[in-house]
Structure formats: structure tokens, C-alpha cells
Write a structure and sequence with these properties.
single chain, Ribosomal protein L11, N-terminal domain, 9 helices, about 50% helix
């Protein structure tokens, strides 16, 4: 029996979902959690796909760890909680190609690609959707440069760590980019607030007040006179 899980690397905890699956099989949950945490410790702080291959007769199990999703690796590498909600306009990080190579080497075995270069391009594709610059450029431009051979030497060397001077330059570039983005972010927030206000405000226009029609005056019927009163009037006449 195979059981697929998505766990916090190195920090899997017991929960009702996993207990309901393993409990009926008589599998020691504590042992499973301990072994999974050992197997995923290098991916601490990242969601990691794990497969448990369980022998239901002997209660033994083996653990297979897949690499975390590329988006998770990118977020960890650049200290992001999430990618950009507007990746075409708002950028959230500026990557050195060496950092991309590092992630590509981790993902390569699960990508079934023919070369590290192809894996690098795949990771850069994820940078596009997350709003991450590469070498202070739009990642789409870097993809074109890779195809033209601009980074062949760097990729073939498999270098994973950029030198300090380069990282400082990328950081400085990104600080300038963030300054230019501040005005755009404020404008977007203002538009969002205005849109929300428009939705709350009544859309109809009050019709002009119509002139009130004069209601017909109701005439109250007179009190019917008593017989004695009628006789007195007849005598007067």
C-alpha cells in the first residue's frame, strides 16, 4: 500500500488525517513521524512530498522523499512568504543565476529533463509567475539569453553560490526597483479602495419627489335626529 503525504520538512506532526489512515493498519504513528522527519530534515521549513510504501502484513514501511515544489524552494531561498500577486508589475526578489542553478540541481532528478540547462530554464519559468527578477532583468529576457548561450559557461560549471560583489550589486539594484514600485503599489491600493467604496455606495439615483395629491375631503355623515327633535321643528314651522 502506498500513501502520499505533503509534510513540513523535518517538522511533521501527528494529526487526525494521518492517524485515520495509519491507525486501522496498526502502524506505529510515532515511528513514522520520526522517520519522516529524519528523511526530510534538509528541507526544514518547506512543504515536502513524501510517499510511504507500507507492507500491511509485516507493518514495515519505507519512505520516499520527492523534492519540494519549485515555488517552495524559491520562497525559502529568497525569504518570501508568497510570490507576487501582480508578477508582471510588482517584483519581490532579485536572483543571481547561481541561486537558480542551486534550485535547478535540487529539482533536476524529479523533472526528468535531459540537462541542467533545461532544469535552469524551468526554474526561471517559475520566477516569471512569482515576480522574481533574475540578474536584475525580466526572467523572460534571461531565458532568451540562455537560449543564445550567454550563460553556458556558468551553467556548465554548476556554480551555486554567487560572489559577494555580485550579490551586493543585485541587492542594490533591487532597492532601486523597490523605490520605483512604491508609487505603483500606492496607486494600486488606492484603486482597490475606490473600487471597494463604489461597491458599497448605493448605485441608484433618488427619483425627484412627486407632488403630493390632495386627498378628497371626507364628509362625515350627519347625526340622525331623534323623533322628539323632529316634532319640535315641525311645530316651529
Amino acid at each position: 500500500m502506498k500513501l502520499k503525504l505533503l509534510v513540513d520538512g523535518g517538522e511533521m506532526k501527528p494529526g487526525p488525517a494521518i492517524s485515520q489512515k495509519l491507525g486501522p493498519l496498526g502502524i506505529n504513528l510515532g515511528k513514522v513521524i520520526s522517520e519522516v522527519n529524519k528523511a526530510t530534515t534538509e528541507f526544514k521549513g518547506i512543504k515536502v512530498p513524501v510517499t510511504l510504501d507500507i507492507d500491511t502484513k509485516t507493518k514495515d514501511f519505507t519512505i520516499s522523499v520527492s523534492t519540494p515544489p519549485t515555488n517552495e524552494l524559491l520562497k525559502k531561498e529568497f525569504g518570501l512568504k508568497k510570490g507576487s500577486s501582480k508578477p508582471d508589475k510588482i517584483k519581490v526578489a532579485n536572483a543571481a543565476l547561481e541561486q537558480i542553478i542551486k534550485i535547478a540541481k535540487i529539482k533536476q532528478k524529479d523533472m526528468f529533463v535531459d540537462s541542467l540547462k533545461t532544469a535552469v530554464k524551468s526554474v526561471i519559468g517559475s520566477c516569471v509567475s512569482n515576480g522574481i527578477l533574475v540578474e536584475s532583468k525580466d526572467p523572460k529576457i534571461v531565458l532568451e539569453e540562455i537560449d543564445s548561450g550567454t550563460y553556458d559557461k556558468l551553467i556548465s560549471e554548476g556554480k551555486e553560490i554567487a560572489d559577494k560583489e555580485k550579490l551586493d550589486k543585485l541587492t542594490s539594484d533591487f532597492e532601486e526597483i523597490k523605490k520605483t514600485q512604491e508609487a505603483l503599489i500606492k496607486e494600486m491600493e488606492k484603486e482597490k479602495e475606490e473600487a471597494a467604496a463604489t461597491e458599497v455606495a448605493p448605485t441608484g439615483v433618488a427619483a425627484p419627489e412627486a407632488e403630493a395629491e390632495t386627498a378628497p375631503t371626507e364628509t362625515k355623515p350627519g347625526r340622525e335626529k331623534k323623533p322628539e327633535e323632529k316634532k319640535k321643528e315641525e311645530k316651529k314651522k
